[in-house]
Recover the amino acids of this structure.
């Protein structure tokens, strides 16, 4: 007996036990159950956590099995990504969604557009997770609804082969619900605040929470200056807070991504507590910039002095009260951060870098893996990087080191359109194309994401439409650039009423009212033109 049949029988048994429920059609109710597989966010979190854990194990066995995601700032955007993935790739496996704190700040705050500094309402993060999964569940309902309508049509036509095929598709339906890697920034406050927000995020459906080692009230975008890190003990307390939130809610295999911004962070707000030479606090403090002092006369009013390497060190303190790390210690601090996080509860790493360079990432990961052999990363394929310029310069440097003639190129101007059709540009584009596979193989990257793709695609597509529509093209700008492309490419949203749930609503009306239902999808519905 199929699951579909079992659901029908289960509803029939309940209906038959209630004499006044004769109007209820068991198959219609069973369809509604199947269309609503996930009852709560915790159902989703438990389901997707297992997916991530299985994918992590698959990557450990074969580094070509890396995963990917794209950032979202609205449920509809996330829904369309997964619909597109199923349409083009036939499966959602190893494809996730990313929830970017940057995009929440820039696009979802009631204050208006904000920089990535944790100034937005923190509950907007959990609200977006809930919204994303609402839209993904609606994508399930819509696709299944179409299968149910096709099944009814096949039965009415007496097409047994088609009926069997559709029943098989219903039985083996693959959900659009996938893991979301969710950004909790630096925790939005102390560990208790981090725990409370993590619970909200998990209850909304998050199986994976990414947290960074910056100071909450000094938090900066990972690709801007002025980043301030916290001592390891502070960061580990927040990792523990997230783990407790997962365990309290019964998501025992929830995933924590520990992000380090130390590569580009030259400042700390506080000196770490240390109890003995060589402990974690002492290691953190060992990177502080400063001067050794010989006597009290070397100390001015307000100076701080610590014991380091058996001597008295006066750390350099800025006018802001922040302390400065020594230059060129970023990589060493990253390695210590990552090892410490993995050995104290984190599952995955995130190393924020200033450029996409496989060799640079691999250098750090190889050192981390000396202590934690299965260390693996989530990596930000950031739009903050100029990918074209970075990779053209990498190819230029390689060609130059190999003794090839690069006299036709100006390294400082390689972004120029004049180079677009050159051999160097084509080699760079190929390196960009294979970057994710290369980095997964050589640098331990399990999950590749783009943080802000739809922020940029929305701007680009809107610009292209506006410049034609408001100039001399009028409706042709929309018809040629948008609607005709939707039709030619089979984009489901061309039938926007259907995408918004009109047909699902019609079917429900028929379930509820039978032949008396007033439906929207009749002969006068203009969606029939498509």
């Amino acid at each position: 007996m199929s699951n579909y049949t079992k659901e029908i029988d289960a509803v029939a048994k309940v209906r038959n036990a209630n004499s006044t429920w004769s109007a209820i059609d068991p198959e219609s109710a069973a369809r509604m159950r199947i269309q609503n597989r996930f009852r709560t966010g915790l159902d989703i979190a438990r389901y997707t956590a297992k997916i991530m854990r299985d994918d992590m194990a698959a990557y450990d066995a074969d580094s070509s099995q890396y995963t990917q995601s794209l950032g979202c700032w609205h449920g509809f955007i996330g829904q369309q990504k997964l619909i597109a993935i199923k349409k083009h790739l036939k499966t959602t496996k190893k494809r996730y969604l990313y929830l970017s704190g940057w995009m929440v700040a820039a696009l979802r705050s009631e204050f208006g557009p904000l920089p990535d500094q944790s100034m937005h309402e923190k509950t907007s993060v959990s609200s977006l997770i809930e919204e994303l999964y609402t839209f993904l569940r609606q994508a399930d309902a819509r696709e299944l609804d179409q299968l149910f309508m096709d099944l009814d049509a096949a039965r009415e036509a007496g097409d047994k082969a088609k009926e069997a095929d559709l029943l098989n598709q219903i039985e083996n339906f693959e959900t659009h619900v996938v893991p979301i890697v969710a950004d909790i920034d630096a925790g939005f406050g102390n560990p208790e605040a981090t725990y409370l927000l993590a619970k909200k995020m998990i209850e909304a459906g998050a199986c994976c929470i990414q947290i960074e080692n910056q100071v909450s009230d000094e938090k900066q975008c990972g690709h801007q200056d002025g980043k301030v890190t916290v001592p390891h003990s502070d960061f580990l307390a927040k990792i523990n807070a997230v783990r407790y939130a997962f365990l309290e809610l019964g998501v025992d295999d929830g995933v924590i991504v520990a992000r380090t911004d130390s590569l580009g962070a030259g400042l700390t707000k506080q000196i770490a507590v240390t109890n003995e030479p060589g402990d974690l606090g002492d290691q953190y403090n060992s990177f502080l910039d400063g001067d050794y002092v010989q006597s009290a006369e070397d100390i001015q009013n307000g100076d701080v002095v610590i014991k380091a390497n058996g001597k008295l060190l006066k750390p350099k303190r800025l006018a802001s009260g922040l302390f400065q790390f020594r230059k060129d210690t970023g990589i060493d601090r990253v390695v210590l951060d990552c090892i410490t996080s993995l050995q104290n509860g984190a599952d995955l790493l995130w190393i924020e870098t200033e450029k996409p360079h496989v060799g640079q990432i691999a250098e750090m990961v190889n050192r981390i893996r000396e202590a934690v052999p299965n260390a693996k990363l989530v990596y930000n394929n950031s739009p903050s990087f100029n990918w074209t310029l970075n990779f053209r310069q990498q190819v230029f440097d390689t060609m130059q080191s190999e003794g090839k003639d690069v006299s036709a190129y100006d390294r400082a101007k390689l972004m120029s359109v004049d180079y677009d059709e050159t051999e160097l540009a084509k080699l760079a584009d190929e390196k960009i194309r294979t970057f994710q596979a290369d980095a997964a193989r050589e640098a331990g990257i399990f999950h590749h994401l783009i943080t802000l793709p739809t922020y940029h695609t929305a701007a680009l597509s809107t610009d292209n439409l506006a410049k034609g529509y408001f100039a001399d093209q009028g409706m042709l700008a929309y018809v040629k650039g948008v609607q005709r492309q939707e039709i030619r490419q089979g984009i489901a949203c061309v039938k926007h009423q259907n995408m918004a749930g009109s047909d699902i609503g019609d079917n429900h009306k028929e379930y509820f009212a039978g032949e008396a239902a007033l439906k929207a999808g009749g002969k006068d519905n203009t969606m029939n033109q498509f």
Summary: The mean pLDDT is 92. The chain has three domains: 1-35, 41-287+325-458, 479-516.
